[in-house]
């Protein structure tokens, strides 16, 4: 998670260079939570140890067309990916993290579809921001920033 003020292609290249092969996701923000408190112009991260967490991620690249059927298929695929890790049962040991395009005007519709598809799996997350310019937000997935 980072400020939109960064050179995003250069940051994506560095993230891929140092963390390639790791399921890394993020988004641009309008402020970041840091060890020193709320910050601006920062990069923030949280990691999940692969010895304790099975991770699976997906990009919703067409939020305007995302449906309940899409959500159900996505959740099934992600759950199957986590099951392959075999670390713990999915029930009572899972959560979904969503990072959505903050300018899409479709966040509530997408979250409603995902919520229905997730059932008892809790989900939380946020919206990509752009330092309050409200012009371009980005979600990072598989080595690149997407708009």
From TrEMBL:
Coiled coil: none annotated. Signal peptide: none annotated. PANTHER family: BLR0328 PROTEIN. It comes from the Bacteria. This is GfdT protein. InterPro entries: FIST_domain_N (IPR013702). The lineage of its organism: Bacteria, Bacillati, Bacillota, Bacilli, Lactobacillales. Residues 1-147 form the FIST domain.
């Amino acid at each position: 998670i980072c400020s939109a003020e960064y050179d995003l292609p250069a940051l994506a290249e560095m993230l891929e260079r140092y963390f390639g092969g790791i399921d890394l996701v993020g988004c641009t923000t309008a402020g970041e939570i840091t060890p020193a408190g709320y910050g601006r112009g920062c990069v923030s991260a949280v990691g999940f140890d692969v010895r304790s967490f099975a991770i699976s991620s997906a990009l919703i690249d067409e939020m305007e067309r995302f449906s309940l059927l899409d959500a159900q298929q996505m959740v099934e695929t992600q759950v199957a990916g986590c099951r392959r890790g075999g670390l713990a049962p999915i029930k009572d040991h899972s959560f979904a993290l969503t990072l959505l395009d903050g300018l899409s005007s479709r966040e509530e519709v997408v979250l409603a579809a995902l919520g229905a598809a997730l059932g008892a799996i809790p989900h939380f997350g946020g919206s990509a921001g752009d330092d309050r310019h409200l012009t371009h937000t980005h979600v990072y997935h598989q080595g690149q920033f997407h708009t």
